[in-house]
Every structure is written in structure tokens, then in C-alpha cells.
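#lab-general

N.A. 3:47 PM
ok so I finally got the sequence cleaned up, no stray characters, all 459 residues accounted for. can someone with queue access submit it? mine expired

B.Y. 3:52 PM
send it over

N.A. 3:53 PM
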Amino acid sequence: MVYIKSGLSLAADSRYHRETCWILIGYERTILGTQMLVQRGEARRASVAETYRLTKKMVVDAKPAIGRPLFIWDKELRGFGCKIEAGGTKSFIVQYRNAEGRKRRLVLGRFGVMTVEQARDEARIKLGDVARGLDPADQKTATKNGLTVGGLCDWYLTEAETGRLLGRKRAPIKASTLAMDRSRIETHIRPLIGSRKVAAIRLPDVEAMQHDIAAGKTARARSGGRGGLASGGKGVASRSVTTLHSIFAHAKRAGLIEVNPALGVRKFPDVRRTRRLSRDELRSLGRALHEHAGTEHPVGLAIIRLLALTGLRLNEAQSMRHDWISQDGYIAFADTKSGAQIRVIGSPALALLRIQNIQENAPYVFPSDGGRTHFVAADGVLGRLCKRMGWTDVTAHTLRHTFGSIAGELGYSELTIAAMLGHAAGSVTGRYVHIDDAVKSAVEKVSQQIASLLDGPQV
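B.Y. 4:20 PM
back already:
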């Protein structure tokens, strides 16, 4: 009978301690050599472990030990390693003993969000603090009493960016979600309560912030060349409270605060957007797209037409890449509001995509003028067109709702429409063959109908 610490090491010396051990029952080949297959037994186990030069390939290929986490330790930077959970999650860690001799372990970030070298640099900083007599694990506790709402927001953004905070479906928070959270923090939360101590925040303060945002107290000019004002309103106020509630919840889970001050907040009700374009308005939109071809940005105009023909979300259209599009009318989105999806588009939309100019080394269908990123100003183009036509309540989402409404008029079921639009309840995911022919036919018919209104006789 052989006693080992994990699936990586034999007991190579006499350093043992009393507790549950792992008994060797066989071997399995891994990237680290021959991994031992073990079962739990009651006896002594070895406390030694092998170390390796931690590399990206090693972390990518490493598999968890049987029924327990696997730890890979870096032989060059003692205390730096990677933990592979039994479920496959891989996180960089640093382990050390503080000045009192207590063993401590910190998670630096998740692999995939943080690279091996980034984690190694972060580990050097933490271990440098330890060498100076500091305890990085206690830094969270030390900030509790003087922590402000603004400071807590900074902590949230930093932790989320490194992948240490989990959002929906216990996955790292999406970059798009984080971008919206950052905008709400900087535009609304920080100006109103950012300087206040978290310990002094109460539920009425959160609800007062909501009313102030709705009243326009945080209105300011939009950045990024979009123009107009970030003027607030009940919808923005409610979503800002949601962001703040989430930040408090993460902080409570991390032990930074004892209670969530936003727990039980009464948010403004969500206003269901029902605005859609009538058939005459679609004809007017088509005429406006044609008439302003020489005065508005052609990429913005093309995106607006694509939104009308497909019902895509604005960011889905603007960030589309060439390699997502198949020749037979499918778009494989790596990420959407409802996760990774494959959507089908009609032939009018596919024809529009095929005539877009391809810039060298630009992966985007709708690149920015510099080509380094994708176009982001289609909503501004749409806003100017609508203003000229006297429409004050039309947004990019209106075009999405219009697509779904016309599908409903043509007699398609809610389930089919949900699949066409990529709603979570009817997400079209997986391989192309999983998309029902009925959905393909429906998308084609709706797209053709809208194209005929945009391009048909103008009345």
C-alpha cells in the first residue's frame, strides 16, 4: 500500500502527518507524466509535492485530480500556482505564511481572463508584500471601516476585470455587462453617493439615489462622440440601482461588508417598450436611408438597414465579424445577451453584408474609420434620421420590435419569433442543423416583407 498527497506525487520521504490519505490503485497518463489513480483511505499521507515551470500549455492541458482539486506549483516563484477544480475551473493562486506563521491562500484571477505571466507578476507583488511583513489576505478587512461607495465600486471593477467575480450562470462577468456597469458607476452612482462611507448607507439612501437619477440630477453630455445627454429617467435609474445592488452583493460575499444596504429596494417598474414602425413608417425609413446616403455615414446607414431586416440587437450588428458569417445565411455569434448563438438571416440581409467594403486586416463587417475596432455610432445616425422625420420615440430596439411584430402579423408562433430574435427562451444554439427549417423559412419571409417596404414604391 502506497500513500500519496495527490495524483501527482509518491511519498518520497518520511514527512507525514495524521489525516485522510489517498491509496494508489493504478496509473493514468497526463501532460505531467504518469498520474496516479487513488482512492480515499484512513492512514497517514505524504506532505510533499512536485513543482514545475508553470506555462500556458501546462495550464491548458492540465486535468483535475479524481474527485478533488489539482494544484500545480511554479518551481521558480515559490508560492505561486494554479488550482484546477474538480469541475475544471482553473484559477491562479498565491500561497504563503504571514508574520504569525499562518498559512494563507489568495486567488489572483481566473485562467483565460488572466494570463500566466500576468498572474506571475501579480504573485510577485503579493509575495513582496509578505516579505515586508504585510498580509495581503488581511487588506480586505483593513479597508472595511473607511470604505467608501466609490472605493467599493473600484474594487468591483478590478475584481470583475480579472474574472474573480462570477455573474450569471456562475461565469465571469461579461465585458459588455462590465462596460454598462462602469458607465452607470461613473455617470450616476459615483457623483451622487461615491464619497459616502458604505457603513453609513441605508436603504432610503439607495432609493433617494434612484429618484435623483430619474429627475436628471446626473445628466451630462455623452462621451465618445455620440452627442446628446445621458439624461437619466426611470429606466436608467432602476438599472443603476440594480448595478449598485449587485456590487453590494459581491462585496458581502467577499466579506467586505456585513449587509447589503440595497436589499429590499423598491425599483421603478420596467416599462415594456411596445413602439414599432408601421408599414408606412418603414417606407419612410427606407426613403430616408436613400435620401441621406450622401450626408450620413454609409456604415451607419447600412447597420440601420440590417437592423430592420434582421431584428438584431444594435451591438450584435455593430460588432459583427466576417468569420461569423456563413455563405448560406447563418451568423455564429460568440457571445450575445443570451450567450453564444447561431442565428439565421434572410437573403436581403445576406446580400447587404456581402456588399460591405472589406478593409485590410479589419475583422469587422462594419469597421470604424480607422479600422482598429468596429463602428459604434449607428444609434446617432438613426437618431438624426428620426429627428428629421419627427419621430421622438424610435430607437434601435424599435426596429427589433418591428421585426418581431411583422412576424406575428404573418402568423408565426411566439416560440418561432423567439428563436428568430435570439431570445433566451428560444435561443437558437448549437450546430446549423439544429435550426428548424420553419425558423429559416420564417426569417426569409419576414426579411423579404420588410425589404419590399424599405425599397418599394414610396407613398
